[in-house]
Write a structure and sequence with these properties.
Organism: Mesorhizobium tamadayense
Shape: elongated
Radius of gyration: 27 Å
Number of strands: 0
Largest sheet: none
Number of helices: 1
Protein name: Transcriptional regulator
Distance between the termini: 85 Å
Helix content: 55-70%
Structural class: mainly alpha
Oligomer: single chain
Strand content: under 5%
Order of helices and strands: H
């Protein structure tokens, strides 16, 4: 068939619908992940600086 055909084969319509649905799901998951990351980052920054525990010296060998 020529590329300038007015009608598309049925297989293309199904694959386009599947692609559109998959992209919608992926974009929704990415947006949810980004919102969660920003929420957790804001909560972590609200707590203030966290001091690291002092490092233990290694035990001396005899």
């Amino acid at each position: 068939m020529a590329e300038t055909s007015v009608f598309k084969p049925k297989g293309d319509a199904k694959s386009e619908a599947t692609t559109k649905t998959a992209r919608t799901i992926i974009e929704g998951e990415a947006a949810a992940r980004q919102a969660k990351t920003e929420r957790l980052r804001a909560a972590r920054l609200a707590l203030g600086p966290v001091e690291a525990p002092p490092k233990k010296k290694p035990a001396k060998r005899k």
